[in-house]
Design goal:
Blueprint (H helix, E strand, L loop, with lengths): L1 H9 L1 H26 L13 H13 L6 E2 L2 E2 L6 H13 L3 H27 L1 H12 L2 H7 L5 H21 L2 H18 L2 H17 L2 H7 L2 H22 L3 H16 L11 H9 L7 H13 L9 H7 L18 H22 L12 H17 L3 H25 L8 H26 L3 H32 L2 H11 L3 E4 L6 H5 L4 E3 L3 H10 L2 E6 L12 E6 L2 E6 L2
Parallel strand pairs: 3-4, 3-5
Antiparallel strand pairs: 1-2, 5-7, 6-7
Helix pairs in contact: 1-2, 2-5, 2-6, 2-21, 3-4, 4-5, 5-6, 5-7, 5-8, 5-18, 6-18, 8-9, 8-10, 9-10, 9-12, 10-17, 14-17, 15-17, 15-18, 17-18, 19-20, 20-21
Length: 572
């Protein structure tokens, strides 16, 4: 190692090459840390989503029960416990607080950004890799979910990591990457259940069938080995949990949370067929504007391959007479260039996830997040095409449309937000400042593109976007958290310090026990309040201001009333 280091120091060209490799990933790492970790614990947990994971992790430490998860000290059969286990460990390190709850998910987003860069750099070049990382770090849904204590970002990391590993294992014929892929699939299962296996299986099967290499892939992927690895990691907890709950976990999680959620509406999470298309467009905005053109470019490259991929030529010939022979319109996929093959993989990856969750009856905004690494690679490749082919017209049109959008936002935002009941004024001010910054950046990018400085135009646009993400993301989340959660965390902590029982009336706020530090009493009927006071004696109650009239017969005393919520003291 010392000899290699001396050689590197003595050889300037080697040193420069090493610096060129290290600098971009170091820069991306720093920017990702700034986007994802700054002020991570400075705002309260979002209900109900974050409370559904942060509180079970706290209760796990409190009760010492690490197999079956609970919420408000009641058994809760939903997701497998991997994320909750890691959150509990983070509480041990960082304390039971918002930062401790979110650090694992933010770290997952950080790692996902890095591995997306590494994969794109390996197969599409450094510039596409840098663009991909910047697009991820400036996509609203990726940033928002990456800073929340929910399972979707770890799931995205494990699914994307497994797909990257499987693709790399196939191209390099390396068993170690294949094993890593199966390990990550097992972790995805331990994060959200069967979907962690189902999605990679569908994506890989579709990809290799389209390549005409399904038979070779079946042999290479060593399915018995994969099943063994996944079973060793994921199966023990499921077996123990089903046994401990006498089959109740199987019925509730496998049947309700997976099968029923896919085929029927669960927890009122219903949406139209286009729900996830809209989620992708909004979640990737403003880059999603380029997605249709990017997909058209990929389909053109597939239909008109320029050269035969040497790693696939032998396999393609042997597959022509196999039972996996393809229809005529798919045969062009057998002779793709390396670049086109990667883009086809990314296209299938993103399409399968979007279609899968669009078919599902129950829908939620973060479901399509595992598609984002593939989508940004597709869009980054399109932007690279703009620069390489000197398509200044395309960049001019894009920056002009976006510039007009943000200028319009400056003037229309105050009008539009009037229709949002009780919208905080500081949210309007933030949106206006953000829109002004982006308008100026887009104007500069437009002027540079007019003068054919396409690379400089890109630097200005991406630089302004990442700077805005670093500065404005914590502010937006803090304002929205205050708007949605009010002073509920403060009320719960106050009641906890007073060592009095706490009643929560007509609120779905599972994070309240997190701040209270103990079990709370959930009530939804007016008549139950007097009965609870009779049994409990003096106690505190948190509710919305609009429900205070339901307490008139109890002789309550208002302790505080702010931001739509109230804390009251009840006595016999």
């Amino acid at each position: 190692m010392k000899t290699a280091l001396r050689t590197t120091l003595k050889n300037p060209s080697t040193s420069n090459a090493l610096w060129i490799e290290i600098f971009p990933i170091a820069l991306i790492g720093v920017l990702a840390a700034l986007v994802l970790f700054i002020h991570l614990g400075d705002f309260s947990l979002f209900n109900p989503d974050e409370g559904l994971y942060a509180e079970p992790a706290r209760e796990m430490l409190d009760t010492g029960q690490y197999i079956t998860t609970t919420l408000n000290y009641v058994v809760r059969f939903t997701k497998p416990p991997l994320v909750i286990w890691v959150m509990a460990l983070c509480y041990k390190i960082f304390g039971v607080n918002e930062f401790g709850a979110r650090i694992f998910c933010a770290s997952s987003a950080f790692l996902l950004t890095i591995i997306t860069y590494l994969f794109a750099n390996k197969y599409l070049g450094r510039r596409v890799a840098i663009f991909s990382a910047f697009l991820l770090l400036t996509s609203p849904l990726f940033i928002g979910v990456g800073r929340m204590a929910i399972v979707d970002m770890p799931l995205s990391l494990f699914i994307a990591g497994s797909l990257f590993s499987f693709f790399h294992a196939w191209k390099q014929k390396q068993l170690s990457w294949l094993i890593l892929g199966y390990v990550l699939v097992a972790l995805a299962i331990m994060t959200k259940g069967p979907v962690g296996l189902l999605l990679p299986a569908i994506i890989l099967s579709t990809f290799f069938i389209m390549l005409g290499q399904a038979k070779a892939a079946l042999s290479f992927f060593r399915l018995p080995l994969g099943i063994l690895i996944v079973a060793i990691i994921a199966l023990p907890w499921f077996v123990i949990e089903i046994a401990q709950t006498q089959g109740a976990y199987f019925q509730e999680f496998i049947m309700r949370e997976n099968f029923a959620r896919f085929t029927t509406v669960v927890d009122a999470h219903k949406g139209p067929w286009w729900y996830h298309l809209a989620a992708v467009f909004g979640g990737l905005f403003p880059w999603s504007i380029l997605l249709p053109q990017s997909i058209v470019t990929i389909l053109k490259d597939i239909s008109k391959p320029t050269s035969i991929n040497p790693t696939n030529s032998n396999t393609a010939r042997t597959q022509s007479s196999s039972q996996f022979a393809l229809p005529e319109w798919l045969k062009s996929c057998q002779n793709l260039t390396d670049c086109a093959e990667v883009l086809l993989f990314a296209f299938i990856w993103s399409a399968v996830i979007i279609v899968f969750f669009s078919v599902s009856v129950s829908k939620l905004l973060p479901y399509t997040l595992p598609a984002f690494p593939a989508l940004v690679i597709i869009i980054a490749n399109q932007w690279q095409e703009f620069i390489n082919s000197k398509q200044s017209k395309s960049i001019l049109i894009y920056t002009l449309i976006l510039g007009l959008f943000y200028i319009a936002a400056v003037f229309l935002c105050p009008v539009g937000l009037k229709y949002l009941r009780n919208a905080p004024s500081n949210l309007i001010a933030l949106i206006i400042r953000y829109s002004i910054l982006m308008s100026i950046a887009l104007l500069l990018a437009f002027l540079m593109a007019m003068r054919k400085y396409l690379a400089l135009s890109t630097i200005v646009l991406f630089g302004a976007s990442i700077a805005a993400a670093i500065v404005f993301t914590p502010k937006f989340l803090s304002v929205i958290s205050k708007y949605w959660e009010g002073d509920i965390p403060h009320y719960a902590r106050f009641a906890g310090h007073a060592h009095q029982p706490l009643i929560v009336y007509k609120l779905r706020k599972p994070a309240i026990p997190f701040y209270f530090g103990n079990r709370v009493i959930q009530l939804t009927e007016k008549n139950d309040i007097a009965h609870a006071v009779k049994n409990l004696g003096q106690s505190y109650l948190i509710t919305k201001n609009q429900y205070l009239h339901d307490l008139d017969s109890t002789g309550y005393k208002t302790i505080d009333k702010q931001n739509n919520f109230a804390l009251v003291l009840l006595s016999k």
